[in-house]
From TrEMBL:
InterPro entries: C-type_lectin-like, C-type_lectin-like/link_sf, CTDL_fold. It holds the Pfam family Lectin_C. PANTHER family: C-TYPE LECTIN DOMAIN FAMILY 20 MEMBER A-RELATED, C-TYPE LECTIN DOMAIN FAMILY 4 MEMBER K-LIKE-RELATED. It comes from Oryzias latipes. This is C-type lectin domain-containing protein. SMART domains: CLECT. It comes from the Eukaryota. Residues 68-174 form the C-type lectin domain.
Length: 177
């Protein structure tokens, strides 16, 4: 599922109908269930180390256990894994604003309160210097072992919040190309 993460040859998707493609120019034929697409930002060249993305948006909420499933229930993509703050910021810049929750699930989780947060698929523990929202993670509702990313217009836009995995949110996923 997580082959070639280091090479950034992945397609990121937010389930039905959202797609973010890193380092590739996707066509709608490649993604028949997707609608709007945005091209590579100026100054971000393919193969530059931080390859750009193509993006569409979704309105389907899911719990993490079914996050990146296809129509058959089998996994069709992996949870998004940010390698650095620049990737985090870029994907957030493409996500539609929400004035309130639910926000978007990202692929960082843990199983127990005292465990280190890890990215699904590569077990990286990178969380960045400024990733968490103020006073987060706080486990305020007990057993908050999944992470959402805020996409509002406030000061916490692009910041993370720990949440119960049973809550329904919009998933951010990627798919190998």
């Amino acid at each position: 599922m997580s082959e070639d993460i280091e090479g950034h040859q992945k397609r990121w998707a937010i389930r039905n109908p959202v797609l973010v493609t890193r380092g590739w120019q996707a066509s709608l034929e490649e993604c028949p269930h997707f609608n709007t697409m945005v091209r590579r930002p100026a100054g971000m060249e393919e193969g530059s180390g931080t390859d750009a993305c193509t993006f569409c948006s979704s309105d389907q909420r899911v719990v993490p256990s079914t996050m990146c499933e296809g129509s058959t229930g089998a996994p069709s993509a992996d949870m998004v894994v940010f390698q650095n703050q620049k990737e985090n910021d870029h994907v957030v810049s493409l996500l539609p604003n929400r004035t309130g929750g639910p926000y978007y699930w990202i692929g960082i989780t843990k199983n127990h309160l005292n465990e280190t947060w890890k990215w699904i698929g590569n077990n990286s523990t990178w969380v960045g210097n400024h990733s968490w929202a103020t006073k987060e993670p706080n486990n305020v509702h007990i057993n908050e072992f999944c992470v959402e990313i805020y996409v509002n217009n406030g000061p916490n836009r692009g910041k993370w919040n720990d949440e119960k995995c049973s809550n329904k949110k919009f998933p951010v996923c990627y798919k190998g190309v």
